Amino acid sequence: MKLLTAALLLLFIAMCVASTEGVKCKCSRKGPKIRFSNVRKLEIKPRYPFCVEEMIIVTLWTRVRGEQQHCLNPKRQNTVRLLKWYRVWKEKGR
């Protein structure tokens, strides 16, 4: 009986760890400097308790590499300019 209880407890702990694995901070390494014309999609995810700062994920498209996702540092001046540009571009309905 004790073995069954220990196995169920271990299974429960493994399920809890697996469920939190999907919500970890994705931006452990920041992406490269990007061209605004290559931007396909821009996502701003809020700051989670386990992340130091908010996540800005940009999807780029190039002929050579195809579609790629990168994380951007929200404190860099280039990222702030990209956010302003993207909002204006989106408002124009493009």
From TrEMBL:
GO terms for biological process: immune response. The lineage of its organism: Eukaryota, Metazoa, Chordata, Craniata, Vertebrata. Residues 1-18 form the signal peptide. Keywords: Cytokine, Signal. SUPFAM superfamilies: Interleukin 8-like chemokines (SSF54117). GO terms for molecular function: chemokine activity. Residues 24-86 form the Chemokine interleukin-8-like domain. The gene is Cxcl14. The keyword Nuclease does not apply. GO terms for cellular component: extracellular space. This is CXL14 protein. The keyword Signal applies. It comes from Pterocles burchelli.
